[in-house]
Design a protein that fits this description.
By secondary structure, the protein is α+β, with helices and mostly antiparallel strands. It is 37% helix and 29% strand. The protein folds into two domains: 94 residues, Roll (Endonuclease I-creI); 103 residues, Roll (Endonuclease I-creI), CATH 3.10.28.10. It starts with a helix and ends in a 5-residue tail after the last helix.
């Protein structure tokens, strides 16, 4: 299996994506709110360019926690390639993170992870009857991984990009946070070229009150 295929499937599986064993092979799956249809189509296009057949559909949830919500679902063809990556990324049916997996990471990996599981922590201020907003930090919800696994990710950010990230607890689970100004600036420069239009809202605001006022960054 070609390395670029392994890397791409890892990119798509790291956050919201998943790989499921299916008979003797495996399938890639991803599900997002109907509002993120363009993002699901973006993922489908990536996989189709690698030669995988993709099925997409929509459904309305009947589960208690999301009753009535509409979702867009993507499933790949069953393949040995997906099974190969499953055995790289899963242990005892749980998604893992280790240095071998991280060796495939690059700027696009980080951008897709952020589009999947990231958000901006913002601050607002009303001045001269205008509401300004700026980003004071970026969070990536890494709570599907163990604490020591997330530390590997912060180590990679530091060694690869000189970005200092911290790990905080959210309901006892690890969440990655980039709060310092230098780190925010570097992070945005790195991921911005890979953020698709429908997900750009996550990084659109400047990083200080002064910049927000200067650039008219208003909601």
């Amino acid at each position: 299996m070609e390395k670029h295929k392994i890397k791409t499937i890892i990119d798509l599986t790291l956050g919201d994506g998943s790989i499921r064993l299916h008979r003797k092979k495996a399938v890639f799956c991803a599900c997002h709110s109907i509002k993120q249809t363009k993002y699901v189509e973006y993922k489908a296009n990536i996989l189709e360019k690698l030669g995988y057949r993709i099925h997409q559909n929509t459904y309305i949830s009947s589960s208690k926690n999301s009753l009535g919500k509409e979702y867009h679902w993507l499933t790949s063809q069953s393949s040995n390639d997906m099974k190969n990556v499953y055995h790289i990324m899963y242990h005892n049916r749980k998604k893992i993170l280790n240095n071998d997996i991280i060796s495939y990471f690059d700027e696009k990996t980080l951008a897709i992870l952020f589009m999947d599981d990231g958000c901006a922590h913002t601050k607002k201020q009303i001045k001269n009857n205008k509401l300004y907003i700026w980003t004071k930090g970026y969070q990536i919800s890494t709570n599907n991984f163990a604490w020591d696994e997330v530390r590997l990710l912060t180590d990679w950010l530091q060694s690869k990009f000189s970005i200092k990230a911290t790990i905080s607890s959210q309901n006892g689970l690890p969440v990655l946070y980039i709060g310092n100004k230098d780190g925010r600036d570097k992070f945005k420069r790195i991921v911005e070229p890979f953020i698709i239009e429908s997900m750009f809202y996550k990084i659109k605001h400047p990083h200080s009150q002064k910049e927000a006022i200067k650039t008219n960054s208003i909601i």
